[in-house]
Amino acid sequence: MAEWDLRKLQILRTLRDRGTVTATAEALHMTPSAVSQQLTNLSRQLGVELLRAHGRRVRLTDAARLVLGHAEAVFERLERADADLAAHVHGDAGQVRVGAFSTAVPALVVPAVTALRATRPGITVRVRETEAQEAYELLAAQEVDLALSLAAQAPSPADPRFTRVPLLADPLDVALPRDHPLAAAAGLRLADLAAEPWIFGGSGPWSDITRGACEAAGFRPHQGHSAAGWTAILAMVEAGMGVALVPRMAVVPRDGVAMRELRADRPVRHVVAAVRRGAEEGTAVGRVLDALRTAAAPRPGGAQTTSPAAG
Question: Do 31 and 25 meet the contact criterion of CB atoms below 8 Å apart?
Answer without folding.
Answer: yes
